[in-house]
């Protein structure tokens, strides 16, 4: 939790946090559909398809963190995995995409699986 002095120097702006969350959500929704198409084309079934989704969604979040959040967080002198200044909660940042993009993933997965296997 930031101290009062840190908040005065670099205040947390709610509009920026909402923008960051919306940007990450849009990225995860788009990539979920792309991963669904890939899983369908590869012919993945059952647990392999779900594992494919979970691994690549976590990888996407990790890449987003590496290129967008970590450089600014480390420059500001915060912890390595501290996302509290840019997102509402760390749980939302790391696992939010698993649930928000799953419906799009499942739809495109079954669509492309049906198109390829038909």
Task: Describe what this molecule looks like in 3D.
- With 118 residues, this protein is an all-alpha fold.
- The protein is built from 5 helices and no strands.
- The protein has one domain.
Keywords:
elongated, 78% helix, endoplasmic reticulum, 118 residues, 5 helices, transmembrane helix, 0% strand, mainly alpha, ER membrane protein complex subunit 6
List the helices and strands and how they pair.
Blueprint: H1 4-9, H2 14-42, H3 46-75, H4 90-100, H5 102-117
Helix-strand makeup class: mainly alpha
Order of helices and strands: HHHHH
Helix content percent band:
over 70%
Chain oligomer state: single chain
* Separate helix tally: 5
User: What would you report as the Rg, rounded to the nearest angstrom?
Assistant: 17 Å
The structural domain count equals 1
How many extended strands? 0
The parts where pLDDT drops under 50 for at least 5 residues are none
Q: Tell me about the biggest sheet?
A: none
Query: How far is the first residue's CA from the last residue's CA?
Result: 54 Å
Mean pLDDT: 83
Shape label:
elongated
Proportion of strand residues: under 5%
In short:
The protein is mostly helical. The protein contains 5 helices and no strands.
